[in-house]
TrEMBL record, chains A, B, C, D:
<dbReference type="InterPro" id="IPR015421">
    <property type="entry name" value="PyrdxlP-dep_Trfase_major"/>
</dbReference>
<keyword id="KW-0456">Lyase</keyword>
<comment type="similarity">
    <text>Belongs to the threonine aldolase family.</text>
</comment>
<dbReference type="InterPro" id="IPR001597">
    <property type="entry name" value="ArAA_b-elim_lyase/Thr_aldolase"/>
</dbReference>
<comment type="subunit">
    <text>Homotetramer.</text>
</comment>
<dbReference type="Pfam" id="PF01212">
    <property type="entry name" value="Beta_elim_lyase"/>
</dbReference>
<keyword id="KW-0663">Pyridoxal phosphate</keyword>
<protein>
    <submittedName>
        <fullName>Beta-eliminating lyase-related protein</fullName>
    </submittedName>
</protein>
<feature type="domain" description="Aromatic amino acid beta-eliminating lyase/threonine aldolase">
    <location>
        <begin position="3"/>
        <end position="287"/>
    </location>
</feature>
<dbReference type="GO" id="GO:0016829">
    <property type="term" value="F:lyase activity"/>
</dbReference>
<dbReference type="InterPro" id="IPR015424">
    <property type="entry name" value="PyrdxlP-dep_Trfase"/>
</dbReference>
<dbReference type="InterPro" id="IPR015422">
    <property type="entry name" value="PyrdxlP-dep_Trfase_small"/>
</dbReference>
């Protein structure tokens, strides 16, 4: 029973259908009418003008955004558990040509204005120090926790105060919005986010993430950088089709709600073994090696977060029976 | 009638079927059984052990190969019309961290040992000059022409003599092999090619190219570089599925033969207006502005190569009626 | 008798004296009063506000300037014989993170608006092509020839028309100004030059070149980039001392005049064997292998430019007797 | 009275003399006989074959060494207070094209095998993580403390065990060796160090540091990288002259002993206010803001390390009277 990660779930039928409907030849790269429709689709969704580009991976989305924000001698402030720091093989350093990541703390993998401020205070002034000129937060965080609109806005205010550009890694942005019950804008751009990596792959897509720019000055460089990084696929219409299908009828939100609901069931079963509040589709549970072995013996697949913690991830396709089986098993340990 | 480019053709039905058959969840990235099968599939195809990785674009394939071949202070020798020089927005400079391309001439966008040797002779010796340590040729060339096995081997001998690693950009490798009627190995690795960008997107795939390493020392760095460039997609099984479907029953070769045959029909009609021999699926025809306007008025889409030349590209799905219509129109000008 | 290069000449006594006068401890890096005086000194020299930084080499000066002008996915237009293209081991690619050099022709290693325009016309439009956003010319050129104020201004007008930033590699700027008999401003910034690598090492200095910015927007990034490249030396006062000593009493101009005069004597002797007009301190002479061997046998050191050409370089310290000996020898071949 | 930093001290008379003796023209770059003598001079000093190159700054020396050790997707393990992490504006990221620094702790700015091991254990395995392939320690450390030969050897054993290349930042290597009373080899290469940034600028030089390679495989790439970074100065003989003058008669050791002795006097006066053992030429003293103001009022210049700590640095030219005055003042606070 698969609770390893949402990044291996199947493709949603509506996405399949949209891709196949895109089969007729069209101009290559992003010259097709689906790619051209993305700006409008996301502008409508966020209620403000924005530019949207497809890319094949969250790493590409995040790093193209950062490359548009910092110069090579500058630095990005992020949480010490951020995906860009821990899980992308130094990709930010590649795309930004060596810019540094400056790491702050914060409970549940979320920075606060205070943890950000404290870290920034320790960055020296002068040409021997890389100036921090961008801020990146993850919505939902690596611990499966969500920044409320107020928390996003507080980070945005901090960014403005310090002159930092503001990026949001939204690999699980859908799950965050589903949890918050607010508009996607309230969870991002209304709080000051200037570039958003809006994830679809973990939520029913195949190989397309949307990189959304609310700040128009970042767009042109990114068009070149996307090509230069080999991410301007020639049959881009199939990526645009995936994304537009996810937006249609708020499929992205339905899928995320389903995943969140499954996670909530598991969380309820885990009780006081929970390491973090369960606000999205990830459940971190304190389990001993023996307990984990027993669960695996019973057919559950999941990830060892550290020696004492297991991570269970649900997805749009998590089956109720399997979720209930896991919940029951967790109650039994 | 679409003769603009093969890079916008639809996805072949067998590829669609294979992708959908890959829908069941599997370990992410390249941990799935389809990705794992690629090494064996290509080793069988080429008759020697090789390592195969999927990436989303030819630019990524080419540049990851070059990054495994040269250090940032070195240089790659290629034809002045090569795609890596002219059409990738400096992507080789990005992936290699600034290595130079050193440009040689040669008829029909093909280098010869002589043009390569002449160019190399003009590269200075000493630390003020970037040493050339790799060679890249395009099979079929940007002019739609093909290196025979003997020509590949001659370039390979030159590379060995000069201590150059040897890369082949095979965005249209299938068309080249279909033209030659030889084994894929004879058109590449038997002549000394150490890394091959084997294109599928232009030939019936959706968004998957294969990067083949015949030289095992280049593999490990490339695994990291692929991740670092955002090209290790989490649902990699859908890329592997495309490629394996193309290999099955030599679909790649059938598709290429079909495209080549269509190009041959057009070429026959173009007669002595042909700029280059037609050996793959591209037809370069001397046409005045007026003649081109007339053809466009008649419904034909194609690319203006330069002021006096139109380029017509066929694909696996070129329809016989449309090809005949174009042939007839060309005879009429 | 040394006519190999001016880059190995001794240090001028006035420079030695100024360095030793700088021995008293002062704040490190460029916090000392000599470094602080550079902006004013060059602003006075050029008759307009400018920012001046010392660096240790012409390569560093050139490449820091280019790094302030182009983004990694852009390109610099320069002559195909430019030092940045041929003699710096790809340093521009290092400092700019992979930006390309686009090469134009032109007699005597000088571009003209026409050669520049022709080359630019062949650069494609769209994200697959690196946009050219900077222009770099060499004053005096690699052939020892000089852009007149009118020629500089014509290139500057071209740069403005095309939206290009404008850099001048002035490794031998002093020799050019000495030849022109105009103000240094007329030979550079009055014609639109925005950043000038003003060479002193070849003209009596030890290890200090001045990087002059007439465009204030390039300064801040360069302060960081200089540090980041290891070029912010801690005892920077010794570099500033060299440069200020060269400016004092127009020593830079006197030294260049002396070198130019020596070159003119040699040029007169070379007669119609001259390959290029002799306008600075380099003399290119058609000489057969045998003739060159004979000259070397007679004690003259010089550089083989190509199989049929010898290059003789004079310097501030060229001795009259040696110059006359060379002139006599050349008359005798 | 100057206790701000040793990086602004004057040039030693013997160094001046050697530079002036190098005035006669010689082949440029490192083609002169002084540069050529460096390998032998350092091989004799260290009792084993090594290659030595001059560069203008410690940042350049450190980063060229790291660039020879790691690929762009790899990482360097160093102390969290290391100069390469805190004071070089991200220069390691520039020279290595984005490699990361992975930070370990340890008292007195010294790593131990245990702190290194603990940190390494937290680095994940797999292509999403940058593999650590090099280790860099600072001798003497940023806290003015020294690794004993045994401690260096322990770090070297750790590096070998983990397959890490081993770099030593020796900006104050002379002070460390003077403290240890051992051979320079015992303080570095005998313990496994493969590349050493051997500092001279802080110890009586002007603008020349030596980069020493005990591992021959790193040399060739570095020759190119030095040129490419603009650090191959054309009048390199003046840099070689400085270094050779410092080696002659062990001037480097005499100068360091003098600086260390001055620091010891100050340390004795600081008593239990010392933050770190004083083993080289830096004295860290707990002093309140008021106490520091009083000292400054009395004419002492020094650096505020943090809110509660002042740093006093001595140099080869520290004057006995000034040192005694400071010692007396510290006893009085």
């Amino acid at each position: 029973m698969p609770f390893m990660s949402d990044n291996a779930a199947p493709v949603h039928p509506a996405v399949w259908a949209a891709m196949q409907a895109a089969d007729a030849p069209q101009p290559p790269y992003d010259g097709d009418n689906l790619s051209a429709a993305m700006d409008d689709a996301f502008s409508a969704l966020f209620g403000r003008p924005c530019a949207a580009m497809w890319v094949a991976s969250g790493t590409a989305a995040n790093c193209l955004a950062l490359a548009a924000m910092v110069r090579p001698y500058e630095a990005v402030l992020c949480h010490e558990l951020a995906h860009i720091e821990r899980d992308e093989c130094g990709a930010p350093g590649f795309f930004t040509h060596g810019a540094k990541l400056v790491l702050a703390g914060g409970d549940h993998a979320k920075m606060t204005p205070q943890t950000a401020r404290d870290r920034l205070a320790r960055v020296g002034v002068g040409v021997e120090h890389t100036p921090v000129t961008a801020l990146s937060i993850t919505q939902a965080s690596e611990a499966g926790c969500v920044y409320s609109p107020g928390e996003v806005a507080a980070m945005g205010a901090f960014a403005r105060e310090k002159g930092l550009r503001f990026h949001m890694d939204g690999a699980r942005f859908a799950n965050a919005v589903a949890h918050l019950g607010c508009s996607p804008a309230a969870a991002s751009c209304e709080g000051g986010v200037e570039a958003l990596s809006f994830g679809f792959v973990k939520n029913g897509g195949m190989g397309a993430e949307a990189l959304i720019f609310f700040a128009p000055d970042m767009v042109e460089a990114t068009r070149y950088n996307r090509k230069r990084a080999g991410h301007l696929q020639s049959k881009g219409r199939y990526l645009a089709a995936q994304i537009l299908a996810m937006l249609k009828g708020d499929l992205w939100l339905d899928n995320a709600r389903r995943a969140n609901a499954a996670a909530a069931e598991i969380a309820a079963a885990a009780g006081d073994r929970l390491i973090h509040p369960v606000e999205a589709n990830e459940v971190f549970v304190a389990l001993s090696a023996g307990e984990r072995a027993a669960l695996r013996g019973a057919g559950f697949a999941f990830y060892d977060w550290d020696e004492a913690t297991a991570r269970f991830v649900t997805a749009w396709n998590s089956e109720e029976a399997e979720v209930m089986a896991l919940a029951k098993a967790l109650r039994g340990v």
